[in-house]
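Weekly structure sync, notes
Attendees: PL, DS, HV (note-taker this week)

Item 1: LSME1 protein
DS walked through the input record. Source organism listed as Leptocoma aspasia. Sequence as pasted into the shared doc:
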Amino acid sequence: MERPSLEFNLPDTHEEGKLYVVDSLNNLNKLNVCPAESQHSLDEEENTGGPGGSMAGSNTRNQCLFFVTFILTLTVSLALVSFVIFLIFQTRNEVDQISSRLLSEKKNIEELKKLNNIILKHLNQSRIKE
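Item 1 (cont.): predicted structure, written out as C-alpha cells:
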C-alpha cells in the first residue's frame, strides 16, 4: 500500500493556526492510515477524552479479572491441598491396618510352627516306641 506524502508547504501563521493545521494533518493521517472500521474506535477515543479515558475502565476491568482469577486459583489450590491431606490420612490408616494384620499373621505363623514342632516330636516319639 502506498502512503501519500503528508509534506505540505504550510504558510506562516500564528501559533494557534499552526496547532490547528497540525491537528488537521493528524486527522487526515488517521483517515489515510486507518481503515473505515477502526475510524469508529478513533472517534470513540476522542469522545472519551483520549486513550486515558478508556484505559481507566480497561485497567479497572483487568484488575477485577485478575482478582477473580486469583481468588479462583486460591480456592482450587486449597481444595487440592485438602484432598492431598485426606489421601495422606487414608493411606496412613490403610498402612496401620495392614501392619496390624501382618503382626497377627506373624503370631499365627509362630504358633503354627510351635504346633508343627510339637506334632513332629510326638510322631518321632511314637515311632521310637513302635
